Amino acid sequence: MEQGETSSPPEDEEKERGGEEDDDFGYGLFPDRNKKPQSFLVRSFFTFHNRCQVMLRMTLETNPYAQLLLEAMKQSGCTVFNDRHFSCENCDGCVSGGFDSATSQIVLCQNNIRQQSHMNRVVAHELIHAFDHCRAHVDWFKNVKHLACSEIRAANLSGDCTLMNEIARFKFGLKGHHQACVRDRAIRSILAVRKVSKETAEKAVDEVFDACFNDLEPFGRIPHSKTDAKRAYRDFQNRDRYNANL
Fold first, then answer.
1. Phi first, then psi: what are they for 242, rounded to 5°?
2. Which residues form a coiled coil (predicted)?
3. What single DSSP character describes residue 35?
């Protein structure tokens, strides 16, 4: 999770689960989810919303992480539409975005995303959750290992743990630092949206870490930079051309 990117289930699920009535599955971080949508005219007067829409459009049109994920989702039968599957909303002060599996919608926190590079990273992170939701039977609500796996993949493949981002967080390391960053951010993501102990989150992450860390679809490699992501996107396109000629 990029400081709060998450996968959120519908509220009805909460009522069906015994012993966890107090767990809102992270919905409290996204208060606009339960509000009546504002008209376009009203929203157009808010700078945050306009800025969010402009940055989103730029990401979808130019960012190789997002472009690869969008194409991969389309090939998996889950075409993403800007107006349908992205929503710029106000969120809790600690989060940047989330994936609402109940609506198959990515929430972008317009009050917290202020830079294009941040938008790029949030969109890539959430699209990985959306890709996992499309290609697999992910039990976001009841199976914390499923959530842990997707969070590991999102932290690993979205650029969350690139060297430059870690330096910006004043975190430095040598051997194994990328893996440590992925593990830490996956645990933080779980704790942000599930009322479980840190020990439970750590256990879930550790039990699935190797398999999920090495699941590099659809990139085929860990994109440590935008250059790596561009290469991965080119390879993905070439792979499709090869398969088309079989």
1. -65, -45
2. none
3. S
Structural domain harbouring 84: 24-137
Same structural domain, 56 and 107: yes
- pTM here is 0.80
The enclosing domain of 70 has a CATH number of: 3.30.2010
For the sheet containing 7-8, what is the strand order?
7-8, 97-100, 105-109, 86-89
Question: How many degrees, rounded to 5, is the angle at CA 236 between CA 233 and CA 240?
Answer: 140
CA–CA distance, 109 with 163 (Å, rounded to integer): 24
26 neighbors 91 (Cβ within 8 angstroms) = no
Residues annotated as catalytic are 126
Tokens read off for 124: 């890539």
34 — pLDDT class (breaks 50, 70, 90): low
Reading the block at residue 12, the tokens are 């009805």
Has residue 228 been placed in a domain? no
Structure confidence at residue 67 (pLDDT): 96
Q: Is the same domain home to 127 and 30?
A: yes
Residue 66 lies in a domain: yes
